[in-house]
Amino acid sequence: MTKGLAVHFLLTGDNSNGSIAAFELLVPASQRLPAPPHSHDHYEETIYGIAGVLTWTVDGKQIDVGPGQALCIPRGAVHRFDNNGSQDAKALCVITPAAIGPEYFREVFAVVNATPGGPPDRAKMVEIMRRHGLTPAAPPDAGAR
């Protein structure tokens, strides 16, 4: 496994007439997702655990997905994931229909890598997410008063 978060596409919309995209997601031990929680209105995302455990938070509920377990994230559900464990995690992610592809991850990783050790530029992350059909959730303190 790599030291950082990695995405390896197995199928894109170009390979499937737009019906499916599939990629392996590699998440190092104890790594939190740098992107904000988000939803998508145009596709479902199904996660299948291969190694380690990823903790997905879907509409506020935490769900651990380990080897041999699956989770379908419905359209419109706000979600994110973290690897809270001491073991690297690997999952297969399936997007139906194939509304997202490798370019999204290239752009996001460029923003994350631009600030090594620090938080990524949230405005740039939000712009990329929206352009690729993801809806960023409001920051947790946005409505607090």
Description:
- The chain is built from two helices and ten strands.
- The protein is α+β, with helices and mostly antiparallel strands.
- It has a domain at about 5-100: Jelly Rolls (Sandwich), CATH 2.60.120.
- The protein has a five-stranded antiparallel beta sheet with strand order 1-2-9-4-7, with no helix packed on it. A three-stranded antiparallel beta sheet has the order 6-5-8, with no helix packed on it. Strands 3-10 form a two-stranded antiparallel ribbon.
- Strand 5 and strand 6 form a beta hairpin.
- Helix 1 (about 100-115) runs antiparallel to helix 2.
- The N and C termini lie far apart (about 45 Å).
Q: Count of helices?
A: 2
Compute the CA-based radius of gyration: 15 Å
* Proportion of beta-strand residues: 35-45%
Give the proportion of residues in helices: 10-25%
Q: What series of H and E elements makes up the topology?
A: EEEEEEEEEHHE
The largest β sheet comes out as:
5 strands, antiparallel
Multimeric state of these chains? Answer: single chain
Structural class: alpha+beta
What is the spatial order of strands in the main beta sheet?
1-2-9-4-7
The CATH topology of the domain at 6-101 is Jelly Rolls
Intertermini distance: 43 Å
Low-confidence stretches: none
CATH classification, class level of the domain at 6-101: Mainly Beta
State the CATH superfamily name of the domain at 6-101.
Jelly Rolls
Level-2 CATH architecture of the domain at 6-101? Sandwich
Global outline? globular
Number of strands: 10
Look at the structure and give the mean pLDDT: 90
